[in-house]
Amino acid sequence: ADIREFTPSSWRSLIGVVPQDPVLFTGTIASNIAFGNLGATREQIEEAARQANCEFVWGMPHGFDTEIGRLSLSGGQRQRLAIARALLKKPAILAMDEATSSLDAASEYRVNDAIDKILSSRRTTCLIVAHRLSTIARAERIVVLEDGKITESGTYRQLVSRPNSRFRTLMAAQLDTTTADMLVSSNASPESNDGGDDNDSGFDYNPILEMQPAFARSLPVQILLDGVVFALTAVLLVHLLFTAQYHWPLAPVNYVLQLAGVLSLFISLIATICVVLTQAFRDSQQWPYMLTYLAVPVPPTLGNSTSSSNGTSLAMVYEPDVWSTAELAAWYVMDATTSALVQFLTLLYPSYLEARLILGLLAPLAVLSAAMELLPIHQSQTIVDIADTIRNTCNAALSLLFTAALCLWGFLVNRKQAWRTDGGTAAFGAAAIVLALISTALNFLYIPAKDQYTWLPHLIWVVVLWQSFLGWWWWVGGGRGVGEVEELLWREERRDRKRKARAARRSVRREKAQALWRNASESLGFIRKGNAESEAIEMVNVIAPDNSSFSAASTSPPMASSSTTANNTNAGTNGLCARIWLSPPLLAVSHFYHLLRRAHLAA
């Protein structure tokens, strides 16, 4: 039949329209649903409301007789009333123009559920104009319009299965590439690839749930694992602080690197948790006051948001705030620093020869892996892919080599000493090897899943830190040997002798200075005394002897003597402090302290 043969009123009566922003009039809910169908009964109005998921109407104070205005209801409620109004006339064609584009997640779900009911009834043909994948995925046939032309058409499965289709490109804005590939491999069937039946009868499953990412990529798992890693890092930091008195004398460089690695990871975790919780708090401040399912991308980049070819912003599954270049640079520098410190911990051990050998062979891999952390700042997908490949290869190689070295040393080279039960040596060894195997498995798991699990790098780093801490003490307890311990004790004793010699030299210099000052003070007092006596004799010869003059002259020598006595008292006080410090009791206490320190080092 030719549509031109029908009158406009006849074919318009068969079409129902649901606009993007429906209009409600002042009046009752029933009158708004029945607008344009004045002869509709209450039963028909309630049935249309039931089909459109308008269950909120029955919770109103007066039900369908509740008075409403243009803005009395939420966007989702107005949209469902518009669907009920369109369904009341039982249209043959239902046109929906971006019916869910301005709705929140909860309202969109209810509107889409109403659309599913309409489609399942098989009595109404729906023409859905939409950008959101959650809305168009339920359609039996999809037509892609671009620049006013139809560029592609087919079922959802067919369009998804085409690698270079325009529909797939638009879909990539709302789903990451990994999810799209999984969807293609799971949904593509021989019939769809060979151009089978285009009139697909619909889905016998929920396509949205099938495209849902794994729960391991969700926000709750991200917060949980970041908290676990934070706790493990804090416990390791406490261990390092409490073992500093033993660790530092044995290997200062190793201790400084371990402490720096733990602190850098601790700071990185604090920053990550702040970013995640801040974004979650922002999401909770918007209707429907719920958190996003997907984990927060850290750091967010320009690649997380996009727009369509005509400039219209596409709906996003997740749209975080985009960071500036300076913020991204600071974040990547922090990651590179943490990565370098963590990887170097697997290389430094107190043995001089082995440390030189390991640093010469494996340090370039650690430096290269850390440098690759800085390249994603270019925002070029090619550079990012190359950097990821190099970094993952270096990390996996370092982890595998370190695990192999631990196993060879513990099971072949030094099996007898490494698995001694005294001092917890065997426990340290077992824990170090188990963590080494776990870190190797996580590094190889991270290669194909680098863009899926944002919490995985921190988990790998904390496992490597604990592995290095336990492995180092295993090395000290079971592999260093008596000769190396005696050498360390000899070095500590030599440092102690040097400290005592420096203290003795300072004491001798102090006593010499005090003696010199004492002699100078006595000489100065003798000169003053001689001058005073000569002045007194001269006064006696020139002036007639007088009782007052004689008494004044006779009192001057005692004044000089009192000044000399004060200087001698100060010098005597300093000498007394030196004698007390070098007294046998204090020397015995100092000797006992050094013996106790040697015993600790030997243990």
Automatic annotation (TrEMBL):
Compartment(s) of residence: Membrane
Keyword terms, alphabetized: Membrane, Transmembrane, Transmembrane helix
UniProt cross-references to InterPro entries, sorted A to Z: ABC1_TM_sf, ABC_transporter-like_ATP-bd, ABC_transporter-like_CS, P-loop_NTPase, Type_1_exporter
Annotated ABC transporter domain residues: 1-172
Keyword Nucleotide-binding: no
Matches recorded under Pfam families: ABC_tran
Membrane topology reported for the UniProt record: Multi-pass membrane protein
PANTHER family, alphabetized: ATP-BINDING CASSETTE SUB-FAMILY B, MITOCHONDRIAL POTASSIUM CHANNEL ATP-BINDING SUBUNIT
Protein name listed in UniProt: ABC transporter domain-containing protein
Organism: Phellinidium pouzarii
